[in-house]
Amino acid sequence: MSDPAGYQPLAGKVAVVTGAAGAIGSATARKLAERGARVIGVDHPSADGGPVETARWPRRIHPAARRRDRRSRVCGYVEKSLALGSRIDIFFNNAGIEGTQASIQDYPTDEFVRVFNVNVLGVFLGMKYVLPLMQAQKSGSIINTSSIAGLIGAANMSSYIISKHAVLGLTRTASLEAAPFGVRVNSVHPGFIESRMLTDIVHNLGVPGAEALVPAVPLGRLGTIDDIAIAVAFLASDESSYVTGHSLLVDRGKTVG
Questions:
Q1: Buried b vs exposed e over 195-204: b needs ≥16 C-beta within 10 Å?
Q2: Where are the alpha helices (DSSP H) in 138-236?
Q3: Alpha-carbon distance 98 to 189, whole Å?
Q4: Would you say 229 and 28 are in contact if contact means Cβ atoms under 8 Å apart?
Q5: Residue 116: CATH number of its domain
Q6: Catalytic positions, please?
């Protein structure tokens, strides 16, 4: 889905995207770059570099692999991003994992903690270190990736459901704390998006395939990664300057259907 020629609402802005090698991360990085932003992609050193190469981003960085604690890794990528871009105007706080699918009584505790550390602690720490930079410059937009799982329940997905509910709570709290400084914080909530994550989830839950979910979607199709990228680009831009603390559903009516 291409933009009109010359459409550059993010020109001059520096964007940091975490989970940048994943489906939604790479699509959003490309969209932000198309709209004029200088994009810095952040992902794990083992992540596939293919999407990064095709996106033609100015920079890609990894959290310092030798730093064992998550706080140091997040602080490290924020410092590197600031050194590369001199400022951070847009922060797509997107990195996340789905975890194992199992009932609560069978769910491995170590796996629950792993999902929490990536999906909740990672989002919290990202804002902890990016918010002061944006508050000092009196501007900025943070978009946290939650999910429709942050608004509804689902059996056998306790860690993912809880983590995405937590992202929504963090977003609402941060939006109130950041508002006096001219910084906006919103969340995006993807529905059934064609991606590796959705394929793995439906397989592990015993669903024959992602297309089997289409009848549950009122508007009648699975979402695309570009659907999410466009939503994030809107929240990143000054076109949404009066929007903060908002949970933007991109689910073609699933949560109300």
A1: bebbeebbee
A2: 158-178, 196-204, 225-236
A3: 14
A4: yes
A5: 3.40.50.720
A6: 160
Question: What is the Cα 136 distance to its own chain's centre?
Answer: 23
Secondary structure of residue 10 in the 3-state scheme: coil
- Counting Cα atoms < 13 Å in the Cβ hemisphere of 226 gives 4
Q: Is residue 96 part of a domain?
A: yes
Going along 43-113, which residue ranges are E strands? 59-61, 90-93
Q: Structural domain tally of the chain? A: 1
Q: 231 in a domain, yes or no?
A: yes
Angle at which helices 122-137 and 70-85 cross, to 10°? 30
Residue-range definition of the domain harbouring residue 62: 14-192+224-256
What are 82-132's pLDDT values in tens digits? 998 999 999 999 999 989 999 999 999 999 999 999 999 999 999 999 999
Per-residue model confidence as pLDDT tens digits over 126-151: 999 999 999 999 999 999 999 999 99
- In a domain, residue 201? The reply is no
**What does the alpha-carbon distance between residue 5 and residue 10 come to, in Å, rounded to a whole number?**
14
35 is a domain residue:
yes
Contacts of 102 (CB under 8 A, 6+ apart): 108, 156
